[in-house]
Amino acid sequence: MDHFLGIDVGGSKTHALISDANGSAVGFASAGAGNWEDIGYEGLTHVLLDVTERALQNAKINIQSICGAGLGIGGFDWNSQRQEHLQAIKPLGLNCPVEIVNDATLGILAGSEEAWGISIVSGTGCNCRGWSKDYKKEGRVVGGAGAWSGEAGGAFDIVERAMRAVTFEWDKRGPETALTPLFIQTMGAADLDDLIEGLYTSRFDLDLMTVQMVFRVAAAKDPVAMDVIRWAGEQLGQMACGVIRQLQLEKESFDVVLIGSLFDGHALMTESLSAIIHQLAENARLVRLSVPPVVGGVILGMQTAGMETRPIRMNLIESTRVLLGKR
Description:
Layout: E1 3-9, E2 14-20, E3 25-31, H1 36-59, E4 66-73, H2 82-89, E5 98-102, H3 103-111, E6 117-122, E7 126-131, E8 138-140, H4 155-170, H5 179-187, H6 192-200, H7 211-219, H8 223-247, E9 254-259, H9 267-280, E10 284-288, H10 294-304, H11 313-325
Parallel strand pairs: 1-4, 4-5, 6-9, 9-10
Antiparallel strand pairs: 1-2, 2-3, 6-7, 7-8
Helix pairs in contact: 1-2, 3-10, 4-8, 7-8, 8-9
């Protein structure tokens, strides 16, 4: 029976999933970070060989059984990088149609029933990608560029914004906030003066894990913390609106797939994001991704091999949940 391979290469982990032609997931494996920006192209090849071999073993098949492969690769940001990435994939020995996309794109395939639309990522960083209905046009922001490209809405952005609010309390540009004593405690500072001086002199560093503290303070109705979360949602919404305009989806009905753990932090994130998007595209549907993005890699592999994936999509999703539940 024909089999299909999906791989999701990220900055912290890599997943490989194998399905048969009926959409039944039969093999899975997980490995470490694969982004070439962190480990180089040789490192990417090593991770791909490792995760693919173990997924094949789990599925009890060999590489010759793979009839289509789809890879979402963190760090594959520009078409000029395509050949380097394909060369890194070549040692896998795939003798089948192969397609590669940015890892944020996999969420569209995994989360949208129609397998097109927009994905918004909010985790350690943030990203936004989109595909047109005919798959001929891609929309995007720069992706991971940070302040100079005006992209915000990830964990570090939220922590930095919250710390700015604490600084505003210190220099009297803003009101008091419950964020302040928690930053002091988390950093191990003696008081607010010590916190500000310690950050300025690099005695203290902002910690990404502090983002959960910001969510907790917002849940306790601190208005400053709530403003920070609302701001992050608005920033993500504005990124999505840019991609919507690029793809001319303003009048379309389409899915906006929300990817990343921060969307579980506070409802204000999604509410403020939704309000911004619906001002531009009232028929947009917000969908929370509930399956691993690597499912989108299998769908991409199937589509690249010429398969119609809608009839088997739900079986692939459910069988993947069962397979991972057994691990």
